[in-house]
Amino acid sequence: MRTVYRRGLPALLTVALTTGVVGFGTPALAAGAAPTGTFTLSANAIWSGQRVTLTQNDLNDPEGDAVTRKIFWGDGASVETNGTETSWTHTYINTPATYTVSVKLNDGETEVPATLASPTVAITNAPGTLGWKNSTVWTYPGYYNEATFAPTNLPTNADQAWTDWKDGEYTLLKEGAASTEAGHWYPTGTFSPTVQFENKNGKANVRTANALNVRDDTTAPTAGFTWPAKNVANAAKSYQTLRGTGRDSEAGADGAEVWIYKWNNVGFIAYWDFARKNWIKYNGDDIPMTAIADVPVSASGTWAVPVNGFAKGWKIEVGYSVYDKVGNYSEPKWADFTLTS
Questions:
Q1: Would you tell me how many other CB atoms lie within 10 Å of the CB of residue 176?
Q2: Low-confidence spans in the chain with pLDDT less than 50
Q3: Does some domain include residue 14?
Q4: In terms of domains, do 264 and 286 share one?
Q5: How many Cα atoms within 13 Å fall on the side-chain side of residue 34?
Q6: Whole-angstrom Cα distance, residue 341 to residue 327?
């Protein structure tokens, strides 16, 4: 005969069976459904120093619990709130990189990620080459000279681009242009102005322009007279236009002053009046300023003065001097010749 062993019943269950009632303790309440939320970034590409705004489009918890939002900006900064805010702004001052923004929702029972369709923010330096038309300019000692700031490849989506000249003055560069020029007067020294771009995402980090060197120019330019070919050097027709040169290796030649006299064997002396375009007999009185032509020196270093009234038998004396862009003058020089035909 097989022996049947019965396991003993717990005392509580035994009592329950005796009384005809079977009961169990109520289990703990299971966690409810997780909260949900959708968020949007105001920009996914900005310049270093600018800001983005995270906007909460929707937030819901099925059980009506308060939801804490933890925002991680991707650069080590974060913010946590359970208040009524629906937007948050963050400024990225970091070096160029791409950062991923995330949001976690917590209703006290469950923590889940929110929905962010485009979560990345690409940070770049504001573009542009901040150079000069000439990186070295010259001035007369104790004076100022104008330098031309000529940045290129500027961002056309910048609403404003301010230049701080570092002497208390500011200039708003042309808006919406890839390149522009702006002049500014400087004394002797080295200067590095700064530029700051701004658009709907705020102000970008300040950028420093290439250095400008302003140097003293105390060297006079050189001046020359261009003679006609030897076989016609004494022909009146060769001097319908007087020509010469002006050179300066620092500030650059700017203009030439020219004056002309003629006389003959009987002692008649006259000067050319550039305003009247005529020869005026010299009688010992002061010569007017109209007897001096002020003509530009070209980029190739030449000057020219038209004149007429030359004829056979006259002796001609042409005086000339060249000045540079900061006011240095060459010593006056003379070209003398006798017209034989």
A1: 12
A2: 1-30
A3: no
A4: yes
A5: 11
A6: 39
